[in-house]
Request: fold
Amino acid sequence: MGRSEELMERAVKYIPGGVNSPVRAYGSVGMTPRFIQGATGPYIFDVDGTKYIDYICSWGPMILGHNNQRVLKKVVRACEDGLSFGAATEAEVEMAEFICENIPHVEMVRMVNSGTEAVMSAIRVARGFTGRNKIIKFSGCYHGHSDCLLVDAGSGLMTAGIPGSAGVPEGCTADTLTATYNDLKSVEKLFEANPGKIAAVIVEPVAANMGVVLPGEHFLSGLRDICTGEGALLIFDEVITGFRLAFGGAAEYFGVRPDLVTYGKIIGGGMPVGAYGGRREIMELVAPLGPVYQAGTLSGNPVAMAAGLEQLKILKETPDYYTELEEKGRKLYGAMEELIRRYNVPCTMNYIGSLGSVFFTEHRVTNYAEAKMADTEAFAKYFRFMLERHIHLAPSQFEAMFLSEAHGNGQIEETLEAFEDYLKTQA
Ligand SMILES: *Cc1c(COP(=O)(O)O)cnc(C)c1O
Reply:
């Protein structure tokens, strides 16, 4: 029995399922999770000292790779000044200025502590602004675990096979309408059936919580047009795509301007941070300026701001990183796609920039229903094979692979070799 197995035995006694977030459990791949001791660059080390090439990257935040020294130094310096004051700090002003000066569709921003909080608050302000209650989300999109958004959500809910969640009263989800990703007609129909009642459409501009699913050519601009025509707000949940697809996220990448945007993951540089922002006239409704209440004891925490801001500054200073991430994505995911074809294994590769996933189905995957056709047992076998070869993937068919700036040709080649060897066992 390894140290991970020992720790899991202790963990399950006092932590539900042994983990503090369901996506960390290895249930769907029939294993015990690796307990992690540390990480550096593209590598992560478990408590038995085994080194893996990491494609989880903390589910996105570690876009510069693990343990970036510049970020670390800023964090240590901030710690020396004090961990939390519950009062206004210069770091928060710098963060807000930096975001608003560099992202054209964000005119005002509010910091929170997680992606869940960011989305929950953005929905509240959208409702406050429009005076309408209903929202449209897409099946398979995950927007955190707040009550009203746990409807046909992807991520851990898909893996665990939980249809929504127990403990969410019907009243909480009654105003949540669900449309089909990449299907504008399904959105139009909901607007027709609920005239003047829909406050906002929220979407992951690239879906990355049902595996990676790309928006079709006119999907995002079509949503923009529908929302504008109906007087509803368009919310881009950029908790994964923000500062990843481009510095300005998917909005910049696809040239579509949302009214509100939510951030998390990368914006904290590894610390628990989220943010929501957008058009000034909407954000001016947030308390204490306006009547939409939203608060947080640790929001804008100085240590978290230090980590997040330094990571964002590095990304902004080095626009080449985004071209490099695109190239690495093509190198890794493009080659995986090629290998799948060569060995004629029933898999489909979806990827964009540094995000990618292998779906264990030969059919194309453009929405939730198609994603769910994937063979999760085949995925589990693949996952175990890759872990054995020291490739650390998300333990679920329905999560993305994340590349970081620290991943180089060596790691990509090693990953491709392991992937080819896996395909050989299937061909
Ligand atoms: C991770 C994620 C969230 C939730 O963020 P947390 O920090 O886990 O609360 C929301 N939306 C999207 C698109 C995400 O990927």
In short: Residues 320-343 form the longest helix (24 residues). The CA atoms of residues 147 and 287 lie 22 Å apart. The first strand starts at residue 36 and ends at 40. Residues 114-116, 119, 142-144, 204, 209, 237, 239-240, 264, 274 surround pyridoxal-5'-phosphate (CB under 6 Å).
